[in-house]
Amino acid sequence: MELLYLHTFCEVARWGSFTRAAEELGYAQPTVTAQMQKLEQSYGAPLFERYGRGLRLTQAGEALLPYARELTRLYGESKEVVSNQARGPIRIGTIDTLAAYFLPPYLQDFRKKFPDIELLLHTASEVELVRQIKDGYLDIGLIFDRQNTDVELVTHAVRQEELVVIMPHEHRLAASVSITTSDLAGEALVLTEEGCTYRGMLLEALNEAGVPQRIACQFSNPEAIKQCVWCGMGVALLPSVAVERERKDGSLAIVPFHSDKPPFFVQVIYHKKKWLSSPMEMLIQSMARSSHERGES
User: Fold this and answer.
1) For 32, what's the count of Cα atoms within 13 Å in the CB-facing half-sphere?
2) Is the per-residue pLDDT at 61 higher than 70?
């Protein structure tokens, strides 16, 4: 029973609220409160203290949290090993761009092979995805970034992805062979949201080159970005995978972006302590294999 309490404890610590933890777990708030009281009695120390309108961990709670996460992780892993590996949920985290333009065919193929496995897709920034994988809330992450070097994670580079600048065909840069940061001087930029890795790289490169930034607008949705570009609000930097439709139908001019920054890769990441079921391994391998078969590196 204490494993259940420890799982609840992790959720309360995550959200800083009994009410929010109860909502996430599908419990009534008094149930969460009672579980935490029993856990505190078991350990003989208070685990939470009030901080404004929320809760924060006491020193005892901070000491318990890594053990609670590891114990719940091991319990979940043992259930996966013992039970049928072709059932149960797989929690996948990724960014909006990859969720829309990269993942769907792989998830569709996976679902045909494993119809009883529930795929739970969650989108967030790369920073948030890494944190949730380390905390055990996600099984697998798919990110778009420069080569990941975090020693707590296992990283598989699926493929290198080109970054491109998109614009209307009548734009002055539309006929360019490639575009550099200096070419963007004076251009209005339609950007992705703050925290996006390639947005950060672009702004960093512009700052280093001394090119003033003119931000017209910013969106988390790549389709909204493309529509704004099509309407003439500015130019945008996107991964090539996000503009394959526009490349085929010719609705926008698409020019490779060149810089001296390290290249960007689509990468699968998971915690180095994460036990991978056979279906999880097959999903990871299918992405890497299909990319190589298409001649991508």
Assistant:
1) 23
2) yes
